[in-house]
Sequence to fold (674 residues):
Amino acid sequence: MGEVTYLEAIREGLIEEMERDSNVFCLGEDIGVYGGAFKVTEGLLGRFGADRVIDTPVSETGFVGAAAGAAHMGMRPVCEMQFIDFISCAYSILTNYVATARYRSFLPCPMVVRGPSGGYVRGGPFHSQNPEAAFLHTPGLKIVCPATPADAKGLLKAAIRDDDPVLFFEHKYLYRRVRETMPTGDHVVPLGKARVAREGRDLSIITYAAGVWKSLEAAEILEREDGLAVEVLDLRTLFPLDDDGIVMTVKKTNRALIVHEDTATGGAAGEVIARINQLAFEWLDAPVRRVAAHDVPLPYAPALEDFVLPQTSDIVAAARWLAKY
Amino acid sequence: MAIALSPPAAPAGLTRSQLLELYYYMRLTRTLEERLVALYRQTKVVGGLFRALGQEADAVGSAYALDRSRGDILSPLIRNLGSMLVQGAQPLEILLQYMAKGDSLSRGRELNIHIGDLDRGFIGQISHLGDMVAIMAGVTLTFKLRKEPRVGLVYVGDGATSTGAFHEGLNFAAVQRCPLVVIVENNGYAYSTPVAQQTAAVRLADKAAGYGIPGITADGNDVLAVYEVTKEAVDRARKGGGVTLIELMTYRRKGHAEHDDQSYVPAGEIERWAAENDPLDRYVDRLTDTLGATADELDAINDRVRGEVDRATDLAERSAPPAATDALIGVYADPPVMPLQWYREGSDG
Fold:
């Protein structure tokens, strides 16, 4: 078995779950005949037929709502947002209906909304967003942000099997840039368990999605140039958030830096910092810092985008400040 | 587009006992609501109270066209208490729900008829009512995918037809030819906004043309007309004929909710509808004038309804409110364990 890309890993996960459970079906814009804007669902229509790979009208509220109704009836729908930027079109139905159905009405709503998020690709303001924090605030949703191909597959399979609605934020920068050999067998990664992506003892970088790769690059530089042993914790899921994993790494290194590509204000880093304050404050030797995007819409020009999004050099600088504190 | 504004001559193919059952559900709706008003004034019904006075026929007649034995499912709007009763909700359950009791169907989490029970075929709506068209599109898409001969019925008001979710849900259902009936209750007002300020369309049913589906306008205060037009749409959906949009013309005689003084309504309008077009009065006349029911029969139904509502009220009043910490249970199937002090910093919980 050769290496597969992050994108191919997602497709493998979809195919395996559709083969395993006839209630799993996909719906979204251009996912059938065309195979999806990024070709994640390429080949699925031929393999599973038009009842299980449904090309929808351009109507995120319509097909997210339809997915929820189908989920009540025992189906396990997987919606594709062509770009995750369009999930905001379905914000109302996701937060008001999908997230509350179980609590209000005892109606299970096992569904996944997945799609490409993230920048570094010159996509401009509407093809680069990281909207996870907008949903992290909504009880009833689970939020997954995989960084590696194996996790993309294993977390997607767990998301499809989960009995609650899961938002699955793929990172388009990673789609074809990272690859690895898939674990054999039925590879399912449980939601809510962070992963130590790199061991270290001097400080911890807590991050997710593309931030993991930037942080690993930064950790290499910090080891080479500063002799620092940096631990990188890949959160994998923002909800459930792995408090134990966060506390463990903070207790080990006593210094924590949160890195995410989303804008800083109201971003997930604030929640992680609040939890560290509550659960491990006395273990800290320095204030917790964060590296995140500037609080602006994501601009198009390379010079602007590169400045706004966190870069490896930004992480290195913040880590040096923390290490010296 | 067919328009059926005049009452049908025949009693819609219904048996005599079915005709009386329709009366029972309409009377139960009105009597139960009157009880809810009394309880509201005693502050035993909390929050808002939304009435269906004058709209009982459209709720009861349409829901009666579904076949519960085949697993049909409906999603009501706030003025469809009658639909819920037809679909099997019990007066006690309704009272517990409005009184926010711990053993209500929503365990105190939701208001009025925002409640779901798939076994009995209802899905609780949310206040963003247009969304329910999309939800029911998915419910009925599943019927279609599984080749089950089941039908869904979703209610929205004239106001919801202006929302994007209504459009997206209806369009999706139409494209997929889902076995879905969409009822627009045109009761003249969305809160204080009259229909003329809601849409430039002459009839809300005209919107059906934009989705390539049949659109029908019917007299919502004639329970048999409502039943007939809905039954035809339900039968078409069950046979694979796709979605129908039905506009039921009715009138909201009370405010948006009990607090609303209806100062925006032209003088005399409410009184005119009450005097000339009350759905219960009309049906009583119809039953006794041409369908052979006797006053004694109807009185017996009235007595039965009063007894049921009285007994249910006694039981509901004895029921306890939910335990406060039950609020933390049930957001997820497999809840993340969060200690109480996580939410209340400084507490010892």
Summary: Residues 3-181 of chain A form a domain with the Rossmann fold fold (CATH 3.40.50.970). Residues 210-226 of chain A form the longest helix (17 residues). Chain A touches chain B through 46 residues (CB under 8 Å). DSSP finds twelve helices and 14 strands in chain A.
